[in-house]
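pasting Aminotransferase for the record, 389 residues
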Amino acid sequence: MPNFALAERVASLPPYLFAAIDKAKAEVAAQGVDIISLGIGDPDLPTPEFIIDALYEAAKNPANHQYPSYTGMMRFREAVARWYAQRFDVEGLDPATEVITLIGSKEGIGHLPWAFINPGDLALICPPCYPVYATGVKFAGGEVQELPLLEENDYLPDLDGLDEETWNRAKMIFVNYPGNPTAATATTEFYARLVEKAKATNTIVVSDLAYSEIYYDAAQKPPSILAVPGAKDVAIEFHSLSKTYNMTGWRIAMAVGNEQLINGLGKIKENVDSGAFNAVQEAGIAALEQGEPHVEKARAIYKERRDATCAALSAAGIEHRVPEASVFVWARVPGNKTSAEFVTHLLKKTGVVVTPGSGFGECGEGYFRISLTVDTDRLKEAVSRISQL
Ligand code: PLP
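structre below
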């Protein structure tokens, strides 16, 4: 029999965290247990109706049935540039060279290292974090060094704690605020220090802004790194319509920023995919232009869930960080189990699915992540089951 062994870089990957959670959940559900799934950051709210209508209209147009442009429809990219100006005061983005359409931000983040990382090159990641940063680098043959995010630093990396030699060696650094899984946010001052460091050491800054629109205090909206003067010299930023407009299944996102970085990403993409369905981009334009009232409603719903969940966790004596943005609550594992042991035990005994902190990197050990993606009553029920355990 032929034997088709996985390539080493693939075989050496841990199981993809969220696929592993889905599998464990299905096994317990098959035994008839009432599952409350707080494991994956997938909004449960429906995509607003007007976005579906825009898709339907656009899908009826035969001109949209052919291969789309590799880099995305110019009108979608123009809508992105306008949205960046309105939302983040990032003026003057050139849609032709500084914006690219993506089939969800995951593929863009995963593909970017292919364009800039040579085998043996170093990239910095800041765990606990989304696993795709490290995977993309490793697929490109690069090495990863961790700049851990610690509770005592409110989950910001210690930029000055890393020696000059490592900064000079690093080709790329990934940051994610509001953060998955910690829900920490960054200020423009932090981004300014990062940009300064990156400029001095010729490092690409990759900012993942997937959760910027789920904030709980309008006076403290999460900023874009591109609002820092000169950030475009070193930074590329990813935003996605997935969480903002409840469109995870639609696969539509954008990367914005440094022209060389956008161009490099485009070069990879034109070789491995053929762009996002035009009708989905049309729907994306409608979302960006008219979506804000709907996002406002979603924020109110998440806020109610956050408040109820944090109150229930406090009442149960479970330490946690009250998030100011994102759809996550980052909490301490009660007792002395590891986070993986706790999560498995919880699922088997109570049917509640949460994510082990260690799945986001070793420094996530001792924590677990709750997604606010079920309704308030179910969240309260979940915390009650956790506390009974
Ligand atoms: N970045 C972060 C931090 C995420 O949590 C996710 C998805 O959960 C993504 C990016 C990817 O989102 P999408 O590919 O749907 O745009």
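The two ends are 49 Å apart (CA to CA).
The pocket of pyridoxal-5'-phosphate is lined by residues 41, 104-106, 130, 176, 180, 208, 210, 240, 242, 248, 253 (CB under 6 Å).
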